[in-house]
């Protein structure tokens, strides 16, 4: 699971004081496991920086290969502890308008191609990821990923003129806390989890 993570990130995490990394409610250090136990997407993951290892501690929902990149960067970031309660687009982040296009466009088409106009199937999938309904679009759900990081899925069914469309929003607390490529990693992971 750690294949895409740069060794320098593991080294940086290993060099950090444990109190700098631990975040009540989503990250603790286990002496027995010699690593950090992190709760994300409702599952526990073990990160052992000295062994350059990241693994799910129990059966977990399948994530994108970028998920491990996001997870270790999240632990290293100066992160907010609470959501701000305001949904923004990735393009509202500083530099987002130019970054999130072309090869870095968020692949929300994966979600709409999977579900089309089947809102019942999308609701079932969203609930399996512990999504909470939102009163937006034709159907919408909010997901607590880890700590203050929350993502909203907005979905509109298609018709003869326009295909079904999915859009992801993020809580404003992400602004300034994570680099744009890390935001891209966890949004790709979200698309993957919803579409598969």
What does this structure look like?
This protein is of the alpha+beta class and 196 residues long. It folds into 2 domains: 70 residues, no CATH class; 109 residues, TATA-Binding Protein. Helices cover 31% and strands 24% of the residues. The chain starts with 6 loop residues before the first helix and ends with a helix. 36% of the residues are buried. The model has no long low-confidence stretch (mean pLDDT 92).
Short description:
The protein has 2 domains: 7-76, no CATH class; 87-195, TATA-Binding Protein. Helices cover 31% and strands 24% of the residues.
Helix and strand topology:
Layout: H1 7-15, H2 18-21, E1 27-30, E2 35-40, E3 43-48, E4 53-56, H3 67-76, E5 87-88, H4 96-99, H5 109-115, H6 119-128, E6 132-134, E7 139-146, E8 149-156, E9 165-171, H7 180-195
Antiparallel strand pairs: 1-2, 2-3, 3-4, 5-9, 6-7, 7-8, 8-9
Helix pairs in contact: 1-3, 3-7, 5-7
Mean pLDDT: 92
Distance between the termini: 17 Å
Radius of gyration: 17 Å
Q: What coarse outline follows from CA principal-axis ratios?
A: globular
Category by helix and strand content: alpha+beta
User: How many distinct folded domains?
Assistant: 2
In terms of DSSP E residues, the strand content is 15-25%
Provide the descriptors you would attach to this structure in a database record:
single chain, 196 residues, alpha+beta, TATA-Binding Protein, 2 domains, five-stranded antiparallel sheet, four-stranded antiparallel sheet
